[in-house]
Amino acid sequence: MILTVTLNPTLDKFYWVDELPLSLDRPEEAILIRSERSLSSAGGKGINVSTFLACHGVDTVALGFLAGHTGQIILQDLLARGVTANFVWIPGENRTNVTVIAKGREYHPLLIHELGPPVPEEGMRIFLRKYERMLRQADCVVLGGSLAPGCSPDCYRELVARAHRAGVRTVVHAGGEPMVRAIPEGPYLVKPDVREELRLGDLPVETAEQIVQAGKWMVAQGVRASLISHRVTGDILVTPEGVWELEARVPLATFKNLVGADDALVGGILVGLLRGSDLVEAARYGMAAALASAEVEEKLCLNPAAIEAELARVVVRRRGEG
Amino acid sequence: MKARDLMRRDLTSVDLDTPLADVVYLLHQSGFSSLPVLDEEGRVVGIVSERDLIRAALPGYVEMLQSAAFLPSLDRIRRKLREIGGRPVSEFMVTDLVLARLDDNDLYLADLMIRKGLKQIPVVDEGRRLVGVVRRIDLLHRLSR
What we know:
heterodimer, A: 10-stranded mixed β-sheet, 33% helix, B: 3-stranded mixed β-sheet, 6 helices
């Protein structure tokens, strides 16, 4: 069973519009943007990974915090998608993250992310008890997304340590300080979220060379593998055995919705590993899943045949070899 | 149709030491009419329902709740709920459990619900660990399609 942890779940709301105003600097009038279509779904990185896994027939349980009316919607959506839910209810209201996608600029959406409800101390105590209990049944834990207000920046480090004590493999799919602090615990895979800042702690991750250096630093700290995005259609995998560049030969214009693609990437890697692939081949399947997700309007492509079809477009090259 | 196909994969539950006030909050949030109580190993060892809470708040009068005419005011229930709100659910839960297995069929589950007057039955694995809940409405919904 794969356990996913989403400490700050969200209701993802997508709006498609013909165009976005070039400037919002019109103080004398309101700006009305009409949307012809919208979609909403349960979200947060761990939840997205669970949704992807459930559709591939993988036994998965989603853990985290739910709150208020939005929490009810998130729960119903998850259950309808075949994910087993084991959440702690806290006061307040889960966040709603809005994505506005303009025609012709699908790869460059406008994102509005709320903060989320604060997690009370008692809520965290209940969560940790559930977490410890579920670890006894888990083969792997995915820690995904931002921390909710009130969570310690050492939260992921602590959760990784607890999982390792229980003999469970960990994946850290998050960004910022909490992800960096978890690295010394030696997670199996780290997939840093560098959307807000192209840095990993003190290390910049803008160029391919910088990404390789950051990956090697993580591996030296005990991480089994690091996977960092390089531009929209590329990723660099660093393991103790070497460095691989994964590239998708796809024009940006084919993308319809990039939100969730990196969660499909992580989900795809896990599916690949469960099928017995090695890490590089599993990463290739993950990249195909990410591509397939980016090419549909829904946040995640849940069609295995469409993912298989993308495999041919993913090129994997060992760095330093041709 | 088996319990595994019918059940809600929602593992909302409480621990033996969960205070009663938290149980009320969780029942309200989750929409369940009862919650499984788990031990440290995650095994279902009890059930706490709305009825158990009412029984705890007004001992001896629970049957009279069938008619609101017997209740002079709700203040007594309010006061009692505040008094017992910090006590652990283990003091109030029912331990004579009706549990379903993943392979139990819909006819068996419906029969159990009707005979025992249950709105929902926890589903457990071989280790008695909670894996889901079959609600009466899930069965009705399935039958009406």
